[in-house]
Amino acid sequence: MFKKRVPLYVALVHYPVLNRRGEIIASAVTNLDLHDLARASCTYDIPICYIVTPLKDQQILTKRLTDHWCKRIGKDLHPDRELALRRLRVVDDIPSVLKDIEGEWGQRPRIWATTARTDVESLSHGDARRYLEKDSGPVLLLLGTGWGLAPSVMREVDDILEAIQGKAAYNHLSVRCAAAILMDRLLSLDR
Amino acid sequence: MFKKRVPLYVALVHYPVLNRRGEIIASAVTNLDLHDLARASCTYDIPICYIVTPLKDQQILTKRLTDHWCKRIGKDLHPDRELALRRLRVVDDIPSVLKDIEGEWGQRPRIWATTARTDVESLSHGDARRYLEKDSGPVLLLLGTGWGLAPSVMREVDDILEAIQGKAAYNHLSVRCAAAILMDRLLSLDR
Questions:
Q1: CA gap A24, A149 in Å, rounded
Q2: What is the pLDDT of residues A39-64, one digit of tens each?
Q3: Is residue A159 one of the residues assigned to a domain?
Q4: CA B77 to CA A49: how far, in whole Å?
Q5: Residue B3 domain-assigned (yes or no)
Q6: Are A42 and B81 an interchain contact pair (Cβ–Cβ within 8 Å)?
Q7: Chain B residues with CB-CB distance to A169 below 8 A
Q8: Is the ipTM value over 0.90, yes or no?
């Protein structure tokens, strides 16, 4: 499987997302999201993890944080972290992500959204895994920060992945942990 | 399975762990570790996630952080977070964890360690899952912060769980993401 490359891309979306009151906001970039998503992307060989934010100050902050590990003192102190963080790419919006992947593959990626909601029609993780194994072209997995992706995004995606169910009714995982579990379910070798 | 309760407990160990030079240290408690581990523990119905640190200032900090969400303003703003964070229990050391679980179950837990190393004899995640399903008594899963659990801990455990393999040789997941993936592999309903 995946003889050439893993066809799954990830985007951590900071706009448009919901806040706890259901309003559309641009959320702040969280330093540990960058590290955790980069490290998980590297572990599962996801080519690029896009950090989506239209806010220039947040873009500058993100570049400063990643440059610390990829270009400055962190690179020597901690070379493993550079390998991971160079998989991050900061972009303005979701259309920029689509254009970037289309430039690489010559085709628009299929778009999957994630949600913690269990009341929507969804693509099972097993079916999603089988789709990736068929090598049918690139797929972009959208992860929402804050209280999740805005409805305007959800309406435009090709599929919504089923919510992660643990053992209890509670499913309020952090986006970092949810991303790691999804990558493991969709891509790990030993399934 | 697990008609009565999930028999798996988790301990996030801050001492004794290794630093990048292989020296024994007490690592600092990380705020997002507390939130992510608590939320994942609640999702997978792990009864208690122990936060192990002998440092009194770190214990006080941890209690202050959790009290914010369990007793003060955070409780009203964000009731889901209280449900999760009240599963955390701060303790001095690993023997205190064993004593606590033994008090609950009347038997010492089996102890599993985690590692990112692939050159040690290990218990597969499938076998670990089947052990838990047999309901053979409590199990304590030790997660190391920093550069991992000290050799003195590793020598005393009953089993070392196999390292998480993604799709690449790189396996430097954060302890938050590794914990979430392990809980999912060992406990999720849909495997």
A1: 9
A2: 999 999 999 999 999 999 999 999 99
A3: yes
A4: 31
A5: no
A6: no
A7: none
A8: yes
